[in-house]
Known about the structure:
four-stranded antiparallel sheet, 2 helices, globular, mainly beta
Amino acid sequence: MKKYIYRFLFVFILFIGVYYTYSHFDELKSYWNNEDWKLIEVLETVSISNHYAIDGNDTNLIIVGNNYVHGYSSSGKENFDINVSLKDAITSTDGDYCIIGEKNASKVYMINSNAKIWEIDIQGTLLDVSVNKNGYAAIVYKQVGYKSLIKVIKPDGNELFTTYLASNYAIDVEVSNDNKILAIAEINAEGVNVESIIELVNMSDLENKNSKKIKLNENTLVTNIEYNSKNKLIVQTDKNLLFLENGEFQSFCEEFDDTTKIASIESADNPIVIKKIENGLFDTSYVLQIYEYKNSGIVCGEYQMEKVPSVIDVNDGKIAMLLEKEVIVVNSAGKLIKKSDVLGNIKSIVIFNNGNALAVIHRDKIEFMKI
Length: 371
């Protein structure tokens, strides 16, 4: 008896599906042909004012303003409101952590999920901050007698160690995902030519001050460093995108030239380059090249476009770009997955919530979108 009931239900459901498809065929055809399924859904709009920085982590969009830090969910719901003492701000996020520093001052705060977990005052002038996915923070600052100092703070807010640079400037710092290495991008500008150095400090052997220095090619300026999810160090210079393999730097791509318009390693899992392509007289296009370190090799996805994006963000395997009055989102393979028309003067866009949400930031409001 049950067998006949199941058969009847199956035939009934199949009939309903066929009937719905037939009766709505034109609508479904239009929906598919126009790719309406790719349109980004706007979930909420929130007013903002007097903000210094906006960043995103796994849980929240974080807005830092005049003596406040607000956290919003992917749907635009306010999750927290924290009082701070700030007149300007720099931020860094990874995982569910967000470190906030008062630029050119001394205050530093750490946010985890929806709460402030520590704050400190450094004895110097703050230059940069960084945090890894486990909550280990690196703070760059300056004091009289040193070009740069880097203080590493454990997740509980206690200092692990401080390293001092007397001759070199620290351009960027990152703690590895296994909490074992502090990577420092340094430049020495005292000679005829600027010298770029990557210093790797062994945080497991601090007593012996164990570190390794790797010089980059002559007349190469290091600009940024990041660790990817495979714990490979990714380096951006003024000439190329590199990764560290067995103590030596390898290239993701050809050296930059006049056709290179944008390059970024902000998402270390997917470094990107946007290049200009001359197709003929008065026929110019652009290609987004998306790189990935995989199985000790490089794979690359591409996306063709007619304009250079004026705003871009890369995170969690997705690239969001503003092309005139349209925001588009592509994946690491270069496939368009979402798009939305936008109005007004867009200041920035931020991917957050594990790549599932997009914030479009205007001068006085934020639009929360689902991707």
